[in-house]
Write a structure and sequence with these properties.
single chain, alpha+beta, 4 domains, nine-stranded mixed β-sheet, seven-stranded mixed β-sheet, 17 helices, 28 strands, HET-domain-containing protein, HET
């Protein structure tokens, strides 16, 4: 085999004259690689040496080829294996290999550039010095990040003290100051370490650092190293089992959005695991590549093939699971609202802000993920208040698209207490109301455009995608905390039934959406002090077209649908039914009489007579003379099994009436 064939296999790791900041990639056949390596191609020998050297499995039973890519000039070479995965291995979690040289070593091939080794201990001086530098850079030189302005401290903060002074709880009385906040998993109830009315007085005097659980203790050390005098930790700074919790929960959004930095204990599963992870970093630890019979300057480690959990690949979980912190409901608002996050994962420390994602391993920082940038628009108040008042498409983009995604992501997460469904997102709702929308928040929905918000759909099983997680079938919460017409009344993953691109047209010329429901009034009785939290009662007084229907089920697919009672036998409108719950509690019974409330008329494809105007509505169960209870979403989408009917067909057999949803 000549030099041309050898070069064709590995491209001599130069990738030609077109090598630039654009991500470039080449496919290498493994059979060719082995042959050219044995025939003297040093670049092929280096790649083969990386495959032979790294001691950890990458989830492949048989590698057929490698896709090599170099995303940045001077950055690492990524080898993506293709072939057959190992038995039981999810292809999603097959790991890539990352080849690099350390700063100071001689560059041999342009495609294998520089990166750092990750320290074996994230509490090392090197790791903490990086964190200090990231914070300084963000505060002084990131134009895309919101400028830090000292604000009122939370009601209570932990004064972190020093090597010679214990931390203690400090009652701030609204004073201005700088503070960090901790985002972490509490863990099972027996392991919670929290402030109660009986421990409050002692903790305002002194708290021994050794007394704190490891995660909290590590956070104190990090805060000290960053030169920040105060730290806010929910379990410590909110008095548990009291009205203080109800009052403070609604302020958590402001607490996280106003901090200097949020310390995120990504590698911890509870309050005792710790922020710092020592050892057991094998997936981020690099080893020298052996080829030509000796160790080379090239180093290799594994990295994730997918940027899961809002992190770049080296930080993401490699073992087929999610970061525990990212499965908890309470932490979503912390992640969205925090302007700066210092992640301590099980593999390395990573900084995240609106401008960059530097980490321990990379010399050239990653750009922040687009999803995070979109969420962070909430804190930058980029939507003009005039656009909100004028009800323009900008307002839809700023509220509906964000809140729709927030609720979809949030309802995939877990809560220890099901009744926290509204409180755990109340801080985010409060910030959105004051900084972005100015709208009235009603039990998880927004008053402006409420008709569209009512068309939420309970997903069971949950939707597909990288973040979707298996959850039990949807059920109605045992303890009342929201009305039936709020997504917070059910346990499932929830999304808006209408597509984002269609919602944006509402209110515009030639809009495919026409609101059919007239909301007359809303009344809510709060269950506590949190204005964005649970309610003890709520009623929606509205006026719209109501049609008596009978619930049916197709024989083949078992799809639920409703048929109008009032139409002639030859022309009875039908529509698909998407139930809110899957309990045997009598909410859904085949053959029973229900009522369809027409909410929206939707034209998804313009100038197409087959998609004239589809009905979106709520399936209601009558509770009393005027009061009705939601049990399902109804969508008049054309279906071969049940026919093709449109909004006007339903309006022709319905009756305009006033009713109260409870």
């Amino acid at each position: 085999m000549g030099d041309g064939a050898k070069r064709e296999t590995c491209h001599h790791l130069e990738f030609g004259q077109e090598y630039s900041n654009t991500a470039l990639s080449r496919t290498i056949k493994l059979a060719s690689l082995k042959q050219t390596a044995s025939q003297g191609c040093t670049a092929c020998a280096a790649i083969q040496g990386a495959l032979d050297t790294y001691p950890e499995p990458i989830g492949m039973r048989e590698i057929r080829s490698l896709r090599s890519s170099s995303k940045t000039v001077g950055g690492p070479l990524i080898l993506e294996p293709t072939g057959y995965t190992s038995p039981g291995e999810d292809p999603l979690y097959v790991k890539n290999l990352e080849l690099f040289i350390r700063p100071g070593d001689q560059l041999v091939w342009p495609a294998i550039g520089y990166e750092r080794d990750v320290s074996e201990d994230s509490s090392s001086p090197e790791a903490l010095a990086l964190a200090q530098g990231w914070l300084k850079d963000c505060l002084s030189g990131h134009p895309a990040c919101p400028a830090y302005v000292e604000s009122s401290l939370p009601t209570r903060v932990l004064q972190v003290g020093s090597d010679t002074m214990n931390p203690r709880l400090h009652v701030t009385n609204g004073a201005l100051g700088k503070y960090a906040a901790l985002s972490y998993c509490w863990g099972p109830p027996p392991h919670h370490w929290k402030t109660t009315p009986s421990t409050l007085e002692d903790r305002t005097t002194s708290i021994s650092l050794t007394e704190l659980p490891k995660t909290l203790r590590d956070a104190v050390i990090i805060t000290r190293e960053l030169g920040i005098p105060y730290l806010w930790i929910d379990a410590l700074c909110i008095i548990q089992d009291s009205e203080d919790w109800a009052s403070e929960a609604g302020k958590m959004g402001e607490y996280y959005s106003n901090d200097v930095v949020t310390i995120s204990a990504d590698g911890s599963t509870d309050s005792h695991t710790g922020c710092f992870v020592r050892g057991n970093r094998r997936f981020s630890s690099a080893v020298p590549v052996v080829f030509e019979g000796k160790d080379s300057a090239i180093r290799v480690r594994t990295c994730s093939a997918w940027p899961l959990d809002g992190a770049h690949p080296p930080m993401a979980k490699r073992d087929g699971g999610k970061i525990t912190l990212n499965t908890r409901g309470w932490t979503l608002q912390e992640q969205i609202l925090s302007p700066r996050i210092l992640h301590f994962s099980a593999y390395e420390a990573v900084w995240e802000c609106a401008s960059a994602m530097p980490c321990e391993c990379k010399l050239v920082p990653d750009k922040p993920l687009p999803m995070r940038l979109k969420n962070r628009l909430i804190i930058e108040n980029t939507i003009p208040r005039s656009a909100i008042k004028d009800n323009t498409p900008n307002e839809r983009k700023g509220l509906i698209l964000r809140w729709n995604q927030v609720i979809y992501d949030y309802t995939q997460r877990d809560l220890t207490h099901a009744t926290d469904r509204l409180p755990a997102v109340s801080g985010l709702a409060a910030v959105m109301q004051t900084r972005s929308t100015g709208d009235e928040y009603v039990v998880g929905l927004w008053k402006e455009g409420l008709a569209m918000w009512l068309c939420w759909q309970a997903l069971t099983p949950p939707g597909t995608g990288l973040t979707a997680r298996a959850k039990p079938p949807s059920k109605r919460l045992e303890k009342y905390c929201a009305p039936s017409w709020s997504w917070a009344s059910v346990s499932s993953v929830v999304e808006m039934s209408l597509q984002d691109r269609e919602i944006l047209y509402e209110g515009a010329k030639d809009s495919p959406i026409e609101i059919k429901l007239n909301v007359l009034s809303i009344s809510c009785t709060l269950a506590g002090l949190n204005p964005f939290g649970n309610v003890s009662a709520a009623e929606l007084h509205c006026k719209g077209t109501v049609v008596p229907v009978v619930l049916q089920q197709t024989n083949a697919t078992r799809q639920l649908y409703v048929v109008s009672e009032r139409a002639a036998e030859s022309r009875k409108p039908t529509a698909l039914v998407y139930r809110d719950t899957y309990e045997e509690n009598g909410e859904i019974e085949i053959g029973k009489r229900y009522f369809l409330l027409v909410v929206i008329s939707h034209r998804p494809a313009r100038n197409d007579p087959q998609y004239r105007s589809l009905v979106y509505g709520l399936l209601l169960r009558k509770q009393s003379l005027e009061k009705y209870y939601r049990v399902a979403l109804v969508v008049g989408y054309p279906n071969d099994a049940i026919g093709r009917y449109f909004t006007e067909d339903w309006e022709a057999v319905g009756e305009m009436m006033e009713l109260i949803l409870v």
